[in-house]
Amino acid sequence: MQAFMINPNCKIGWNFFNKLQQQARVNFKDMKLAQSIVEEDEEVVDPAIGKPYKTVRWHATKQTKTIPLLKELLDNSLKDLQFWMYDPITNLMCFGENDIKLLAKTQIQSDPQYEVCAKSWMGAVAQIMGFKLWSGQHTRV
Length: 141
Known about the structure:
This protein is an alpha+beta fold. It has two domains: about 10-60, no CATH class; about 65-140, no CATH class. Helix content is about 30%, strand content about 15%. The protein contains three helices and two strands, in the order αββαα. Helix 2 (about 95-105) crosses helix 3 (about 115-130). The longest helix is centred in the last third of the chain and has 17 residues, at about 115-130.
């Protein structure tokens, strides 16, 4: 197993990768598998092996369908905002409506080498604005 997609600075990613490796060595005995349904599609054939495609489905889970977010910050936490700073840990959806609106009207100024990152953050703020996903808005899947 290779970890070609894991950020070496991400402890959570490495812990997950190591857990999967450890479980693979013992045939995933500590992980409960869900019952699945396998269906063959006789009309669609995989050209590489000449056999029908198979579709695997799982029954709907009874687990909760809400995603826990980071702790909400009080709205207007950014009222004294002086500049943006890239922080890979901060979840923008922790901010309240007024803070997101402030971020939306404040353009990020960055060096050319960080322009892609700056644009992705501004895009994330635009998405939060468009879907009203700021803190306090609880949406269920």
